[in-house]
Specification:
- The protein is α/β, with parallel strands linked by helices.
- It has two helices and 15 strands.
- The strands form three sheets. The protein has a five-stranded parallel sheet with strand order 1-3-6-9-12, with no helix packed on it. The protein has a five-stranded parallel sheet with strand order 2-4-7-10-13, with no helix packed on it. A five-stranded mixed sheet has the order 5-8-11-14-15, with no helix packed on it.
- Helices cover 16% and strands 26% of the residues.
- The protein has a single domain (34-154), classed as UDP N-Acetylglucosamine Acyltransferase, domain 1, CATH 2.160.10.10.
Length: 164
């Protein structure tokens, strides 16, 4: 047996080799995974809901997302807030535990970069435009765009249209 052709590989070499193979896959996975901040049991989502890389803050309320709703990249669903009457560390610590729920109906599309601040309710089949900041109630079957957001028009559906 000739050992002159053998090569010693340190354990770190194996770790580096493994990481170099996994890193691209891990990067893609993390780039398309939502970030949940707070108690994940406060998030309720229906069937066929797509969150991609949303940031969901559950510190001050529940988030409910109806069936067949989907979010674009970089959407934020924020239930948390801080008391502006406080200062410094007291402001940082003054986060309510309840009362800032976000309810998103069925078939809602929230486009990339939109920020939804609770308390808020978005009706079924509404469309929230890219980059819009929503701080209140959005009617069902409407398109909401602009800064500040405004409801452009009601969406009309034929009676024979079917939900997928």
């Amino acid at each position: 047996m000739n050992l002159s052709n053998w090569r010693y590989l340190s354990p770190s070499h194996y770790v580096d080799a493994l990481f170099s193979r996994l890193a691209p896959r891990l990067r893609v996975h993390l780039a398309h995974a939502p970030l949940i901040w707070g108690d994940a049991s406060r998030l309720s989502k229906g069937k066929n809901v797509h969150l991609v890389d949303a940031i969901i803050n559950l510190r001050s309320g529940h988030v409910t997302i109806g069936d067949n709703s989907f979010l674009g990249h970089g959407v934020m669903l924020l239930t948390g807030k801080h008391d502006i009457a406080e200062r410094g560390a007291a402001r940082h610590a003054s986060v309510p535990k309840e009362g800032r729920d976000i309810t998103i109906g069925q078939g809602v599309w929230i486009a990339s970069g939109a920020i939804i601040v609770g308390p808020c309710e978005i009706g079924d089949n509404a469309v929230i435009g890219a980059g819009v900041v929503v701080t209140g109630h959005i009617e069902a079957n409407t398109i909401c765009t602009g800064m500040p957001p405004r409801q452009l028009k009601a969406l009309e559906y034929s009676s024979d249209a079917k939900d997928a």
